[in-house]
Amino acid sequence: MRTDTQTAPASKKMLWAGWIMSALPVAMLLFSGVMKLMKPSAVVEGFAHFGYPESVVLVLGIVELGSTVLYVIPRTSVLGAILLTGYLGGATATHVRIGEPFFMAIVLGVLVWGGLYLRDDRLRALIPLRS
Would you say 69 and 80 are in contact if contact means Cβ atoms under 8 Å apart? Predict the structure, then answer.
């Protein structure tokens, strides 16, 4: 018996669409996090442009990679999405503060939550969008 808080299990098409939608932000965040760990001169110069010291590059890379890994693991995906939302909110604020375009971080956040919504029954139960 279904109650108002339950949703039907995701179809295979919905699951695939969710994983495909999640793949783009995951790939971009993994690449970005690895670049922060490697700290090439372009990354260090970028952080200086944003007004951040080189000492935060490694820490932010670890936070970015850790949050992304949590997002990819189904059991911890909601926690990962919450942490990525905070991380991307900081990226948005950084770009707004220096007057640069900030839409990419917002798009990534929408893809993170949209992909998770399509692939996670728990999230659809929490946010039941009805037609």
Answer: yes
pTM of the model: 0.88
How far CA 74 is from CA of 3, 77, 121, in Å, comes to 24, 5, 11
Tokens of 78: 């909601």
Burial class (CB in 10 A: 0-12, 13-18, 19+), 65: middle
Helices (H), 2-102: 12-38, 41-50, 55-72, 77-97
Q: What is the pLDDT of residues 32-78, one digit of tens each?
A: 999 999 999 999 999 999 999 999 999 999 999 999 999 999 999 99
Q: Say if residues 95 and 52 touch (Cβ distance below 8 Å).
A: no
